[in-house]
TrEMBL record:
Organism whose genome encodes this protein: Marasmius oreades (fairy-ring Marasmius)
Protein name, as recorded: DNA replication complex GINS protein PSF2
Record's subcellular location: Nucleus
Keyword Manganese (UniProt): no
Domain DNA replication complex GINS protein PSF2 N-terminal: residue ranges: 12-71
Claim: Phosphoprotein is one of the keywords in the record: no
Residue span, GINS subunit domain: 75-171
């Protein structure tokens, strides 16, 4: 989401993708590699054709060098996404999705579409799912009040997008309630004095 600099109080989408790249994902290595230590942990050994779990950033690096095939997460397929889209459009609550699904899906569709089944259909379903979820976010934000607001099952990207508006709106609502309470207190003090 493109926001003016003055409203950019949240992480940018590329920053969220960087954070998501720490998630573990399965690959089928095409090369042998000994266990390798990195700052956040050691990964390997890699032995073709045995599956291995590595961080997404490592899988992307190996994929770009044509040294592995990435195995799509179980939620990144047409059937799962179609079911979630049906849930999303049929219910008022958000369907349960992985917290970083938007970022991971974008990375995998950009880097490894050949490792995904029906990448064009997946892109289309993700776009429809995103639009349905954004409509629910707008509906939820339209009824903001001073009380508790519940938008459960939002993903990282969605939280990041609504955070600036939400914080600003909540501060205005709080200020209005304070002013109203102060006016009522002044009115009640004026009545007791007369």
């Amino acid at each position: 989401m493109a926001l003016p600099t003055s409203l950019r109080t949240s992480a940018t989408p590329p920053e969220l993708e960087l954070i998501a790249s720490q998630q573990l994902i399965e690959i089928v290595p095409l090369i042998a590699m000994e266990k390798t230590a990195f700052i956040l942990g050691a990964y390997g050994p890699l032995r073709p054709p045995i599956k291995a779990s590595v961080p997404l950033w490592m899988a992307v690096n190996l994929k770009l060098k044509k040294k592995c095939h990435i195995i799509a997460p179980p939620w990144l397929n047409v059937e799962f996404l179609q079911n979630r889209l049906n849930e999303e459009t049929g219910n008022k609550v958000f369907s349960k999705m992985p917290f970083r699904f938007a970022e991971i899906a974008k990375i995998l569709l950009d880097v490894a579409p050949d490792d995904l089944e029906s990448p064009d259909k997946i892109r289309s379903l993700l776009k429809d799912l995103r639009e349905a979820r954004q409509a629910k976010c707008r509906d939820g934000l339209a009824v903001l009040d001073r009380g508790e607001t519940s938008l459960s099952n939002l993903c990282a990207m969605e939280i990041n997008e609504i955070r600036p508006f939400f914080i600003h709106a909540k501060s205005i609502i709080t200020q209005l309630y304070r002013e109203e309470a102060q006016d009522l207190q002044e009115d009640s003090q004026g009545m007791t004095m007369s």
